[in-house]
Amino acid sequence: MGRMTYWVNVSLDLRIERSAADRVAGEEGGGWVRIDEQLFREFNERARGVALWVEGRIIYEMMETVWPSAAEDESLPDHLREWGTIWTAAPKILVSNSRTTAGHNTRIVGGADTIAQLAAVRDETDGMIAVGGATLATQLLQHGLLDELLLYTHPAILGSGRPLFDDITEPLECDLLEHAAFESGVAMNRYQIRDQRTEQSAH
């Protein structure tokens, strides 16, 4: 069985992007993140061990716009080309009800039985399944399919914007599996989400 892991850059106040109204002129959603060469090489090392990427449409379309061409762009630093090569070649699932085609080793999952399909993917996959997108991660968490959080916390307080999860009504406990700090001030924390159903049945 694979381990579905929500991989995300997040602020100190657990926002993953600023609201459009609060962005300064010319800033895209990630102007506050500190992704330098050291952190990119960490991403590359971890990405080489990913068995499968499962991404929502917004994340996937952002990635497909940039990284397949970056892999072949000799003007870019090697760590950026490497990330492009890893992502483009890796097996991927795009979770979408609107897309009907996708390239770059990607298949599409959607429809009324999306969660059931993703549960089957989790059962059939060995290793890390990297999850991208807050909407998708929230749905997986609500259905008990999200196993881990891989949070890269950047030293910024956004004050508003998209939260790490949407509409979580029940508290969930986590256990720290791994921690690292980077020269940029970014901290990586990998957590295992406790299975509340297992804990309740034990009492």
What is the subunit arrangement here? single chain
Low-confidence stretches: 23-29, 196-203
The proportion of residues forming helix, as a percent range, comes to: 25-40%
Shape: globular
Set down the secondary structure blueprint.
Elements lengths: L1 E10 L3 E3 L19 H11 L2 E7 H14 L7 H12 L2 E4 L10 E4 L4 H11 L2 E6 L1 H9 L5 E7 L7 E2 L10 E8 L5 E7 L2 H6 L2
Parallel strand pairs: 1-6, 1-7, 3-4, 3-6, 4-5
Antiparallel strand pairs: 2-8, 7-10, 9-10
Helix pairs in contact: 1-3, 2-3
Structural features, described:
The protein is α/β, with parallel strands linked by helices and 203 residues long. The chain has one domain: Dihydrofolate Reductase, subunit A, CATH 3.40.430.10. Helices cover 31% and strands 29% of the residues. It has six helices and ten strands. It has an eight-stranded mixed β-sheet. A two-stranded antiparallel sheet has the order 2-8. Strand 9 (174-181) and strand 10 form a beta hairpin. The longest helix has 14 residues, at 57-70. The radius of gyration is 17 Å and the shape is globular. The two termini are 26 Å apart. Mean pLDDT is 90; it is low at 23-29 and 196-203.
